[in-house]
């Protein structure tokens, strides 16, 4: 059985992960409309990945005897200044999510719920990869410069990264790899 405090904290993280998915969906749509099909491809893949993060927590909470609540969500931003602006926002959002996972972990240990804390190790490791990959993308975008040609070449790199992300999701069993 899970404590009410842990249940509440996991439900808050479910909301954050679902919101992340919608934020990246809005960014993907912007990139698709503004001539960055590769970046859009990566962001659509990221949308799917965040949905898996959300679903894993839904299954985990229900499996432990808690109640996973599907939340109402505010609309994400629809307009962005540029591709670097999009990925700067992705990085800041991932840093926020890392901090929120750490807080959730702290709640679990405070409640002596070491089973949940152990489960969250997967998310802690995942956040290292999430932040690192976005920092690397941002570096590459900045290196490509503001020239449209450079950004076009960079955009092609995104397709390979999106394919790798989708392959990793399939290998890990996606949202079915719950416990
Ligand atoms: Fe689920 Fe990108 O944090």
The total count of strands amounts to 0
| Corresponding CATH architecture | Up-down Bundle
Overall tally of domains: 1
Order of helices and strands: HHHHH
CATH domain class name? Mainly Alpha
Task: Offer a few descriptive terms.
single chain, 179 residues, mainly alpha, Ferritin, 0% strand, binds MU-OXO-diiron
Task: Give a structural overview.
By secondary structure, the protein is an all-alpha fold. It has one domain: Ferritin (Up-down Bundle), CATH 1.20.1260.10. It has five helices and no strands. It has helices at 4-33, 37-63, 83-110, 114-144, 148-171. α1 (4-33) runs antiparallel to α2 (37-63) and α3 runs antiparallel to α4 (114-144).
Topology, pairings included?
Layout (H helix, E strand, L loop, with lengths): L3 H30 L3 H27 L19 H28 L3 H31 L3 H24 L8
Helix pairs in contact: 1-2, 1-3, 2-5, 3-4, 4-5
The structure holds MU-OXO-diiron (FEO).
What's the short story on this structure?
The chain is mostly helical. The protein has helices at residues 4-33, 37-63, 83-110, 114-144, 148-171.
């Amino acid at each position: 059985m899970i404590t009410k405090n842990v249940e509440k904290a996991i439900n808050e993280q479910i909301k954050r992960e679902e919101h992340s998915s919608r934020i990246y969906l809005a960014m993907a749509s912007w990139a698709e409309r503004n001539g960055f099909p590769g970046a859009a491809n990566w962001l659509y893949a990221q949308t799917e990945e965040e949905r898996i993060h959300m679903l894993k927590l839904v299954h985990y909470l229900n499996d432990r005897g808690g109640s996973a609540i599907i939340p109402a969500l505010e609309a994400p931003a629809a307009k962005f200044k540029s591709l670097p602006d999009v990925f700067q926002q992705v990085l800041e959002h991932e840093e926020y999510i890392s901090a929120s996972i750490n807080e959730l972990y702290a709640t679990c240990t405070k409640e002596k719920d070491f089973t949940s804390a152990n489960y969250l190790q997967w998310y802690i490791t995942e956040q290292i990869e999430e932040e690192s990959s976005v920092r690397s993308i941002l570096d590459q975008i900045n290196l490509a410069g503001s020239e449209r040609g450079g950004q076009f070449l960079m955009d092609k790199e995104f397709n390979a990264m999106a394919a790798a992300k989708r392959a990793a999701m399939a290998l890990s069993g996606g949202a079915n790899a719950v416990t």
